[in-house]
Every structure is written in C-alpha cells, then in structure tokens.
C-alpha cells in the first residue's frame, strides 16, 4: 500500500496520510489513478491552452492509462521547455514510486523543504529576483514582521484591534473597538478585522475551526460583514464560511496546510 503524508501532524495525533497520491512540481502534477490531461482553469487564453495541450499529450505519450496530468496556472508564462522538463521529472518519479511496492515499510520520497515549497508554489517574485544574500530578512523587514506575528494582538484602524489565540480545539478571535465609542465603531472594527483575518491566519499557519467574536453591532449590519468576509476569503480556496451561531459568534473552517508559526518559532 502506498500512502502520502497529506498535512502536518498535530501534537498528540497521528500523521495524516492519504492513498490519493500527487506528484507535484512548479508546473505539473501527476495524478495516479486519476487519468486525463487537464489544464488549470486560470489559464484563459485559447492559444496558450492549445499549446499546453500539445505539450501534455507529448509528455504523457506511452504512459500508463492510470496516470493523469494537471498543468498548473504557472504554465501561462512559463517557457515551454521548462514545462516539458517538469512533466518528464514528475512522470519519472511517479513511475518509479508506483513500481516500488515490495519490501518492508519505508520512506520512498522525502517531503519538500521550505525552499522547495516556495519555489514550487510561489511564482511571484521570479526565482532570479529573490534576495538570498546575508541579512536579507532584516533588509526587507521580514524579521520585524515575524516578531509581530508572535503576538496575538493585531492592530486595526482607529485604535481597534483583534486577538488571535489558537487552542487545542479551535482558533479563537476576539475583535475590540478600542477607544472609539461612536455608533459605527463596531462595524468599522469588524470590517477591518474581516479584511485582515485571512492574511493573519495564513501568515500564522493557523487552520481548523476558527471562531470569531466580533465587536457588538446591530444584527441588521451582519449582511455587510458577510459580504466582506466572502470577498476576503475568496482567494483562500481552503476556507469554508459556516456563518453565525445562535450566540452571535461567527464560525469558519480553514485547512491546516502547515505547522503553526508559534511551533516553528517558539
């Protein structure tokens, strides 16, 4: 039986694994037991899709009928040769792993490092534009940003703030208006928090169940906040907005895709 680690292990829990294997690179994903040649829907240009379709067919010629291929959105601006090489590398790796099914349990492929993941999934900036020199974190303010993420407090406009505190069961978020006592203070603070929440969860590596205690505001204004939340989380495909509870809390879930920053930088 072949399995692949599908996410980080939580403390006290088993490592999550799946039998749905994926061999993913910067431009190509080989999908065993999910045949077909597919191109990211984010690529809209018909001419480019036709070019990529031809590349995909050539790259998968002679492959097992059980192997599928997905060409990722980065193929839009990629050099054809780079796409060809990615397909060949992932196909070769997949075929080698699928053929190695005998013997005792063992690790067949190492997981990607942080640098590998960044190269694979972040297309902007280009690799050649990355600053890899000494003290690059200090030069670009990364160290300062990491220090601010150690604190649960997130400053918002007009003196408002929210507290983001992970527990074993869920991530608790509390929004406060601060010194602003105007009638619209609650809505303003809540809108600011809703817009920044996806980014804060992503940067902190937080997922699972998230419960938000927004600042007090009239119920008739909830529909405004609903629209802001939907727009804010639109780019986060791994989030599910469950909505309001009877106690006036807002619930959502987000896929845990990596270890929390608090565990990486204790």
Structure description:
This protein has helices spanning 46-59, 80-99, 114-121, 136-139, 142-149, 185-204, 222-232, 261-264, and strands at 4-5, 17-18, 23-24, 28-32, 36-39, 67-71, 153-155, 161-166, 171-176, 208-213, 239-244, 250-254. It folds into two domains: 4-129, Ribosomal Protein S5, domain 2 (2-Layer Sandwich); 147-264, Aminopeptidase, CATH 3.40.630. With 266 residues, the chain is α+β, with helices and mostly antiparallel strands. The strands form three sheets. It has a six-stranded mixed β-sheet. It has a four-stranded mixed β-sheet with strand order 3-4-6-5, with helices on one face. The model has no long low-confidence stretch (mean pLDDT 92). The protein is elongated and about 70 Å long. The protein contains eight helices and twelve strands.
């Amino acid at each position: 039986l072949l399995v692949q680690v599908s996410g980080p292990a939580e403390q006290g829990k088993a490592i999550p694994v799946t039998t749905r294997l994926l061999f993913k690179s910067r431009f190509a994903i080989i999908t065993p037991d999910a045949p077909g040649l597919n191109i990211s829907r984010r690529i809209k240009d018909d001419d480019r899709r036709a070019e990529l379709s031809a590349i995909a067919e050539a790259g998968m010629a002679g492959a097992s009928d059980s192997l599928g291929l997905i060409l990722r959105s980065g193929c839009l601006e990629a050099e054809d040769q780079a796409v060809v090489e990615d397909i060949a590398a992932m196909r070769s790796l997949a075929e080698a792993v699928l053929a190695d099914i005998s013997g005792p349990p063992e690790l067949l492929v190492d997981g990607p490092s942080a640098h590998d993941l960044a190269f694979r999934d972040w297309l902007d900036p280009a690799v050649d534009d990355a600053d890899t020199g000494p003290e690059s974190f200090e030069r670009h303010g990364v160290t300062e940003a990491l220090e601010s993420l150690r604190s649960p407090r997130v400053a918002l406009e007009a003196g408002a703030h929210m507290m983001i505190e992970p527990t074993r069961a869920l991530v608790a978020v509390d929004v406060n208006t601060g010194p602003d006592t105007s009638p619209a203070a609650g809505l303003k603070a809540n809108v600011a928090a809703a817009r920044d929440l996806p980014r804060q969860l992503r940067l902190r590596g937080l997922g699972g169940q998230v419960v938000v205690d927004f600042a007090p505001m009239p119920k008739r204004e909830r529909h405004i906040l609903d629209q802001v939340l939907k727009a804010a989380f639109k780019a986060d495909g791994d989030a599910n907005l469950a909505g309001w509870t009877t106690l006036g809390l807002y619930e959502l879930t987000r896929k845990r895709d990596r270890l929390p920053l608090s565990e990486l930088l204790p």
